[in-house]
Amino acid sequence: MTTTQNAIGPSEALGTLFTPSGKRNPYPLYEALRELGPVVKLGPKLVFAQGHDACTDALREPGLLVTDASVHSKTGMLEHSSWQCFTKIMMFSNGTDHDRLRTFSRWAYNPQSITGLRSTIEDKATGLAQRLTAWAGDPVDLVEEFSSRLTLAVTGELYGIPLSDQLMLRSAIANTTTAFEPVFDLSELADGDAGMDVLVDYMAGLADSRRREPRDDVATRMVHEADATGTVTSDELVAGLVMFLIAGVQSPSDLIAGTIRMALLKPAEWQAADAEAFVTEVLRFDAPSQVLTRVAGCDVVLAGVPVAEGARVMLLLAAANRDPSRYDEPDVFRPHRSPNRPLSFGFGMHYCLGAQLARMQAEIGLTTLAHHFPHMTLEDEPRYRDQLVQRGLARLPVRLRPR
Ligand code: HEM
Which atom of ligand 1 is nearest the CA belonging to 92? Predict the structure, then answer.
C-alpha cells in the first residue's frame, strides 16, 4: 500500500464520494482511493474495487452476481416500483434468467441492426442541427435541445413513439436513473418510483396497442415474440421495453453531451482526432456509468483480497479507467491512446447491448453539430446532475455561431 501527502482515508474519500461535491468531481477521490490499492475493504460486507485489472476480474468472476430480486427483497427496495421493474430486466438478473432475457431481445441491437440505423441517426442529427439555427447567436442548452432529443428520436423511431410522447417521457426517463444511486433511506427512491410509474404505464399501453395493431417496429416484434414463444412473461416484456427506453435515451444522451463538452474544452484534440477515437477517450475520461454493484454469491478473492459471501462489491469503473498502471498520464485527455479500452460499457456476460448504438450516436451527434456550428463556444460552466452512478450534464449552455 502506498500513500501520498494528499491521500485521505478510504472512509473519508468514500464518505465524500456520494455527497454533492463528490458527485460533481469524483476524480480526486478516486485517486485517493487508488493510493490504497486496487481493492479496498470497508468491513466484512463492503468492498470497493478501483483498479483496472481488479474491476475486469470482478466483471468476469462468476461468483460475483448482479443485485437481483433475491438481493433487493432483503433491502425493502422490492416494495418500490423502480426496483420492481429493474429486477425484471437482464441487467439485474443472474444465471438462466439473465440468459433467457438477453437471448429474447439481443437481435434488436445486433451489429447489422445497428449499422442499419446509421442513416436514421444522421437524418435526425441533421434535422436537430438545422432546428438549432433558430438560436444562432443566442445561448442554448444542448442537453435540452440536442443530446436528449437525438437519443429520444432514435429510440422513438425504433419503438414507434411519437415526438410529443418522447418529450412527455423525457423527465420520467431521467428520474428513473436516480434509483441507481446508493440508497441511505428508502424515501430517496421517490423520484425514481414516480418516473418508473409513468414509463411502465406508457410501455404497457404501447405493448397492448402493438398487439392490437402491429407495426413494422421493434416493439411489435418483441410483443409478437413474447406472445408466440412464451419465453418472457408480460411483466418482463413491459420491463424490457422500459429498460430499452431508459438505456436507449439517458446514457447515450449523457455521452453525446459529454463529448460535445470535451470538444469545446479541447478544440485542438478534437481537430486532430477522428470521431471514434475522440468518443472512446470521452468514455475513458468521464464515463456516463461510473459505478456498478455486485454481490458475492460465494467466497471469492479479488486482487488478493478475500471477499465473503454476501458482501457488496462496488466497482468504480470510472476510477479503473484512470488507473495509471493501465494508462500513461490518465488524467490527461488524449484521444488515440493505444490501447484504449475503457470499462465504461462493462465487461463479460453483462457487457452493454447498446454500446455500438451509443457510440454511433455520439460520433454522429458531434460531427453533425461541428459541421453546422464550427465556431460554437461554451457559454457557461456546464452543470452535472446530482448523480454519480449515472453521471451526466444537467445543462450544456453554448452559443452557436453558424458557418
Ligand atoms: C453511453 C451509453 C451507454 C453506457 C455508458 C452504457 C453502460 C452500460 C454498462 C456499464 C453496462 C453493464 C452493466 C453491468 O455489468 O452490470 C450496460 C449494460 C447494458 N446496457 Fe448499456 N450503456 C449505454 C447505452 C446503452 C444503450 C443505447 C442500450 C440499448 C438501447 C443499452 C442497453 C444495455 C443493456 C440491455 C445492458 C444489460 C446487458 C446484460 O445484462 O446482459 N445500453 N450498459
Answer: 40
